[in-house]
User: What shape does this take?
Amino acid sequence: MSRLVPELIYEMWLPLEERWYERSVDAVGVRQFAVQDPDGYLLRISQQVGTRPR
Assistant: This one.
């Protein structure tokens, strides 16, 4: 979907990235990007990629 965004009218606000968020016993990974619509709302699209030990 991130490949289609440049063709749309939405402004890319956060390019596609993979990020890991630490929790108390492990970390959860997501692949995400965000666009800003014409009204200024941010739309974050994300997909979980798994967990790993801390």
Summary: DSSP finds no helices and three strands in the chain.
